[in-house]
Specification:
By secondary structure, the protein is mostly beta strands. The protein has one domain: Sandwich (Jelly Rolls). The chain has a four-stranded antiparallel β-sheet, with helices on one face. Strands 2-7-4-5 form a four-stranded antiparallel β-sheet, with no helix packed on it. A hairpin with a 5-residue loop joins β4 and β5. The chain is globular.
Amino acid sequence: MIRQQSCANESISRQADSLRELYSKDGYVLVREASMTMESEYEMPVIVPLTQGSWYQFVFIGDYTSCLYEVRMYDWQERMVIFRQKKWGDVDGNVISYTYIPKFSEFHMIKPVQVNKQKKKNLCGYVMMFKRTGDAPQQNGAVSPAAGARNP
């Protein structure tokens, strides 16, 4: 059984603080956030309720020493709507961020995973969910909300 436990990592906390500030300037409100202890190569499912037509920004921050980071997001019908992958050498390699506008008001499941060759257990991960406010300015450098999403 997978149980979510919080963790503390100074580097991840600083990155989360910076991203919180960046997205708030772009008109987003932080809706949920959580640190979580993860195990290498094992997904940590996170279930979130989303509202149809709302613009969301999701962020996953993994342990800096991991070599691979992935996030998959599924809708209520268990269809994968988002897949993102980063590697350690990538710019901001330990941070995966994406926008998403749900077609239906329903629960979605986010499954972040990280692979670490040195540490198999007690990896710290951090997830954040932002929601765009109605009077928000255009997001700087935003990807199309549908980018990476598969239409059923």
